[in-house]
Structures are given as C-alpha cells and as structure tokens.
Amino acid sequence: MLVQSYMEFCRYRSDAKKNNLVDLSKAKWFYPTTLLPLASFLGQNKDIGLIMPNDHDILNYFSLITKNSVPETAKSFIPIIKAKKLDGRYIDQIYAAMASQEDKSDIGQSLKYVIGELVDNIDQHSKCNLSVFMAQDYKKKGFLEASFFDNGITIPGSFKKANMGYKGKKVNKSDVEYIEEAINGASTKPEGGRGHGLPSIIKILKDMHSNIFIISGKGAIYIKGTDKYMTSNILYNADEYTKLKGTLVSFQISHPINYVNIYEKGYL
Amino acid sequence: MNAPKLIKVKEKIADNLVTRNSADKLFDYINSQRDKTIILDFKSVKFATRSFMHEYLLKKSDTRKKITERNMSKELYKMLKIVSESEENKNTQLELTFKSLPLSSKTH
C-alpha cells in the first residue's frame, strides 16, 4: 500500500504539471506517503492551483494536518512539521502520539530510535532546504504510517558527490544500486563507525513487522516486514514519471506494535 | 586545584539525544570552558541514538578535557558500550533478497 500511496502522489504531480492544478476535490483519504511529498511539491510550486477536498471531514483533516505544529497533547497524528523540529525536545511528543494505542512502557525504545536516526540522516547527508515529517495512527484500519521527506541531494546524489561506490570500488551505478548499498551499510563519510543508521533502522522496523518504502532520485526500495518469508522485497528503478527530487522514507506498522529491544540481537 | 565543572546534559542539550550535531554542540560548549576537568551529568536523559553516541565518543577522544560521566541510565550505558565495542565488528549486511521491477505510471 505504501507504493500505491506514492503512485497517487505521482498522479497528482503529473496532473499538476499538465494543468497547473492539483485537484483534491474527490479525495477520500490521505496517507502521509501521498500527502507529504505533495504538500512539499505545492510549497515549492506556489503558482500551481489547488482545489480543496469536497468532503467536509477530509477538508478538516487536511487543514489540521497542514497546520505545521506539534500537538501539545498526544493525538493520533503528527501534522506536517519541519523535521528540524524533531530534535530531542520534541521526540517524546512524537513518540507519545505514535504509540498512543500501545503499551508505553517503552521497551527497547524502538520508535524513538527509528525517528531519531532518520532525523540525523537528513541532518548529516541531505543538504536540503526543506525536510518534513508526518505520522498518522489509523486506529480503525489497524496501522500507523509515518513519513519523512527532504528535498536534498538524494542518497545516490550523496554517494556521487562523495565520488564513491561501496568500498570505493565501482562508480556510476544506478540510483537503486546506491540505495541498496546504503541500506547495507555503505557510508559517504570517511571516519570509521559510520553506516549503521539505515541498516539498523531497517532491521528494527522489519522485526516490528513494518512495511518500508524508500524512494530517492530514481531508485526505490520496498521491504514487506509483514511477510515472514521475506519474498516480497522489491528494488524499483523509477522513471521520469515516478522519480523524486529528494528522499522519501515511509513506514507502516501494524497494531499491536511489536516493539523490539534495540539493545539486543545485533540491531545496532 | 579547582573543582571540576559540572554540566547537566539535559539542560544543555535535551532529554533525548538525537543528532550528531547535538554531540558537536555539547563539545563546543565543553571545549569553550576554562576548566580542565568536566563532569557530565546525564541525570534524566532518557535516550540516545547510536549516531549521537558515536559522535560523542569521537569528540571525547579528541578533546583535551578530562571527562567523567555521571548518572547514565542503563539504556544510555548500553548504547555507549555497544558503540564503543562495535568499531571493529561492523556487520551491517542485511540478509534480504529482492526482485527488481520498474516503477512507472503502469505500476499499481
């Protein structure tokens, strides 16, 4: 479903390029994987018109979610906020909202870890001027979805800028090859002890039975953590229609959340 | 001899230590102090990412100050230990298999 949600964004974006208009009038629901890149696209293309949703509830939701402030008390959603706000001072509020239906004993601090490392990745590598986060707990649908988007140089772009492939061997790889290497621990930074962020995030999310979608430039990856046989993982080569200027990381965790102890089993 | 300088990490940074930049900021402050001996009080600090802790250890090994940690929670200490012991044992390879597909307007 994460891939379908991203494709919905691609359709809105394609229509906007043709008609200079995004028409949300028939929208029935929004997922972060659609809404986050779409809101960023609209923010960067202010000449593009917007037709708001006809449905009153959807319109209200759209207004709330684009409010750009962290709720004071735990809600079932985190509206679109700038990722730079997600420093240590806010992360408890994010965690409280995202874990609203669950045992908050904080076993293993897995959600905090995932959010924290993704924020640091953006901070360290993206060289973006816009980075945003959004999360929604879909109580009735039984899952939680969260997305990060930044309009930076992309994961492949970061490797190309550092002029390296994994272990310095091959260069001029496809975008998806760079992404595959990044999730397996390649780093663009020279000092030792780097390259643990994305692999550890993916190991943790996978064991939390989370589906994960990452698209960056023309490469994308989908990991289906709910498939215990792990035969549904896909590397995608994006084309002109689907490529993304920037990086989107989305994950979807089913309720009840299967927290893992991040300090065990070699996650880190 | 002067008493060591006490720095409360929660007050200086936050109760969740997230980014490498936070560790840099902490050490910018430490290195700007006249005192040669620093006590870092981690009381009420709840969490640190691996990235924060890695940067913390790098900066700690670089500084001329003598640093002592105090009141680290069990979780923070575990993270410190994992990062300090893992430098030589990096195994981040994910045991995942993938099929390759195009992502185009015809997808889904």
What's the SSE blueprint?
The complex is a heterodimer of chains A (268) and B (108).
Chain A: H1 2-19, E1 21-23, H2 32-44, E2 49-51, H3 56-65, E3 77-82, H4 88-98, H5 110-126, E4 131-138, E5 143-150, H6 155-161, H7 175-183, H8 197-207, E6 210-217, E7 219-224, E8 234-238, E9 244-254
Chain B: E1 5-8, H1 9-12, E2 16-17, H2 20-31, E3 37-41, E4 47-48, H3 50-62, E5 66-70, H4 74-86, E6 99-103
Helix pairs in contact in B: 2-3, 3-4
Order of helices and strands of chain B: EHEHEEHEHE
CATH 4th-level superfamily of chain B: STAS domain
**Strand-pairing-aware structural class of chain B:** alpha/beta
Low-confidence parts of chain B: none
Using only C-alpha atoms, the radius of gyration of chain B works out to 19 Å
Relative helix content of chain B: 25-40%
Rg estimate of chain A, integer Å: 18 Å
Structure description:
The complex is a heterodimer of chains A (268) and B (108). Chain A contains 8 helices and 9 strands. In chain A, helix 1 runs parallel beside helix 2 (32-44), helix 4 packs across helix 5 (110-126) and helix 6 packs across helix 7 (175-183). Chain A is of the alpha+beta class and 268 residues long. The model of chain A has no long low-confidence stretch (mean pLDDT 85). Chain B is of the alpha/beta class. Chain B has a single domain, classed as Transcription Regulator spoIIAA (2-Layer Sandwich), CATH 3.30.750.24. Chain B is built from 4 helices and 6 strands. The N and C termini of chain B lie far apart (72 Å). At the A-B interface, helix 1, helix 4, helix 5, helix 7 and helix 8 of A face strand 2, helix 2, helix 3, helix 4 and strand 6 of B.
